[in-house]
Design a protein that fits this description.
The structure holds two protein chains of two kinds. Chain A has helices at residues 5-33, 37-41, 55-62, 66-97, 103-115, 118-130, 152-160, 164-174, 179-186, 191-199, 204-219, 223-228, 237-247, 252-283. Chain A is an all-alpha fold. Chain B has a two-stranded antiparallel ribbon. Classes of the chains: A mainly alpha, B mainly alpha.
Chain lengths: 288, 295
């Protein structure tokens, strides 16, 4: 479409204004995190702080065991990403390149599962975790202990059940030429051999997409950790932040400092891997 | 006559899918069965008793629950509609090659979608702060009266919706941009020859051609919006006067603060049914967005 220069400029200015509106909450977050309490409560509003209080960040992190919270978030994210990558790529490969009985039905089942939100399964999942047999002091009938509540296994397991990765890998592997399989057969490679030696080395971009997607969704998860952890030493950063709010509701500078810090790892990732963020949602666009 | 099969059955395929289906069975399918079963019981994590349909009868007369259904519906309708329209307009603007810096704009508009709902709730809690929040500072600068925002029964849900739109807009926009890339350019060229103007092209080509994308966005958007919980729990706790309580917030409150697991399960069944309707609609009329091209 041909557009006149004047329209072009108006459009540009409009987009710029819109972007500013989108970004303002982030700017206010950062500037508040650097202000003194006196400046925050003063009547005169100014976007940038008078004196930059970087010590707010140190104080905020000292207020509680944030090292532990970051570790918990990091560890559950790594577990969820690594296990998902392995089992989702295997299943996606089978659905894309193999023929077997019940394939269509099983895939449909996974698709339906992809639409079932975690909010519907959180209650029974909690019950299942609590009464998980032989774990956390439980006997074989799941009685007596706390099961998988307050364990990393309990925190991560439901994330891995998301079907998004299976779907993503299947879409990706289906685009490979059929002749690849024949070549592998001639070379005497088993199915597993072909998967590991031929398919995986060609799949870097799809792995990057899923890593980005899974890291974001696990790191940002709030509801499930809220339910499955009852002890403070198992809190993730999101959960810790929400509790931090109740304790320090008036200290906005500390609260905003902590908010900035827990967002930082993803922001860095976003800056460097923006392409993969977009690819993930465009392929299906469902949280899983 | 025996027909020879030309396809080989891969028995080992089951080993490839087994690890995934183990998790799927344990943490998606089984929970749904457990949830339905629990909804017929009174269960407080210690004692359990079968009560038949009692939970559902109580649910039918639970004013607070229906209030939460109404709130959720309002949230769903406004958030999905507003995000959809804005996302579409932005996609149109940013897809035209004539504009400078489209990559830069897209990157910024998508940013809120990357961050967690909890952290954004904190930020918006501060923006909505009655004494020093930026919204009231602006109103006062303009000589208008400051508002109570999240503490005002009439404004709280609207405040949530505004934040929801702000956070989701980049996601919708990205899907629409992908959809726009899929529209063959000869359609526009043909329209130009026929003398169609810009607006005419949008209404007679772009919007009809984007119908599958719109359908997909509406379905997934509605499902996601029905599950609204995190910002409610963090920002208002369902208040003031239950003005922002939602279905999932009710489930959470009943099950995990009052330990009425059976009753919470009945509420979850209600939510599951709503989700199921939209899922079936999607399978019946949608195409899972499979043929979207990555732009």
């Amino acid at each position: 479409m041909r557009i006149k220069k004047s329209t072009r400029i108006i459009l540009f200015v409009f987009m710029l204004l819109f972007c500013v509106i989108i970004i303002i909450p982030f700017l206010i977050m950062v500037s508040t995190s650097l202000k003194t309490p006196a400046e925050i409560s003063s009547a005169a509003f100014r976007l940038w702080p008078e004196r930059w209080q970087f010590s707010n960040y140190v104080e905020a992190m000292r207020s509680s065991d944030w090292g532990r919270f970051f570790w918990n978030s990091f560890y559950t994210t790594v577990l969820s990403v690594v296990i998902s990558l392995v089992i989702n790529s295997l299943a996606g490969y089978a659905f894309a390149r193999m023929t077997f009985k019940g394939k269509d039905f099983l895939f449909l089942l996974a698709l339906v599962g992809m639409m079932i939100p975690q909010q519907v399964t959180m209650l029974p999942n909690f019950v299942a975790m609590k009464y998980f047999p032989l774990m956390g002091g439980n006997n074989i009938l799941g009685q007596g202990g706390t099961g998988l509540v307050n364990t990393y296994a309990g925190m991560v397991a439901p994330y891995i059940a998301g079907a998004f990765g299976v779907f993503l890998f299947r879409q990706f592997f289906m685009n490979f030429p059929k002749s690849l399989d024949d070549a592998a057969k001639i070379d005497g490679l088993s199915r597993m051999g072909a998967f590991v030696r031929i398919y995986l080395p060609l799949s870097k971009s799809i792995f990057a997409t899923l890593i980005v997607f899974k890291t974001t969704s696990t790191w940002n998860e709030y509801t499930w950790p809220l339910i499955i952890t009852t002890r403070k030493n198992m809190w993730t950063v999101q959960l810790a932040l929400s509790v931090f709010k109740e304790e320090f509701i008036t200290q906005w500078n500390y609260l905003m400092a902590a908010t900035t810090l827990i967002m930082l790892p993803l922001l860095v990732m976003y800056v460097f891997m923006q392409k993969y963020f977009v690819e993930g949602i465009v392929t299906t666009g469902i949280k899983g | 006559m025996k027909k020879k099969k030309d396809v080989t059955i891969d028995r080992c395929a089951y080993w490839f899918i087994a690890p995934y289906y183990m998790f799927f069975l344990l943490f998606v399918l089984l929970p749904i069965v457990v949830n339905i079963t629990l909804s017929f019981t009174d269960f407080n994590l210690k004692t359990i008793s079968f009560v038949g349909l009692k939970n559902y009868f109580v649910l039918a007369h639970d004013g607070l629950f229906w209030k939460s259904v109404l709130n959720t519906l309002i949230y769903v309708i406004f958030t999905v509609f507003m995000t959809l329209v804005l996302g579409f307009v932005l996609a149109l603007a940013l897809n035209s090659a004539a504009l400078w810096g489209t990559r830069f704009f897209r990157g910024f508009i998508y940013l809120p979608y990357v961050t967690s709902m909890v952290s954004m709730s904190m930020v918006w809690l501060w923006l909505y702060d009655p004494t020093n929040g930026v919204f009231n500072v602006m109103l006062e600068t303009l000589g208008l009266e400051a508002r109570q925002w999240l503490y005002d029964e009439k404004l709280a849900l609207g405040a949530m919706i505004v934040m929801g739109v702000w956070k989701g807009i980049g996601y919708y926009m990205t899907l629409y941009i992908a959809g726009l890339n899929n529209i063959p350019s000869y359609l526009y060229e043909a329209a130009s020859i026929d003398g169609a103007g810009c607006l005419q092209k949008v209404f007679s080509i772009t919007i009809p051609m984007l119908r599958p994308v719109t359908f997909f966005i509406v379905i997934t958007g509605v499902i996601n919006a029905f599950n609204v919980f995190e910002q409610v729990n963090v920002m208002t706790g369902g208040g003031p006067m239950n003005a922002t309580t939602t279905i999932v917030h009710q489930i959470y409150t009943r099950a995990f603060t009052e330990y009425r697991m059976g009753y919470g399960a009945a509420e979850a069944v209600f939510l599951l049914l709503i989700i199921l309707v939209f899922t079936l609609l999607n399978f019946r009329y949608g195409n899972q967005g499979q043929d979207l091209d990555i732009g």
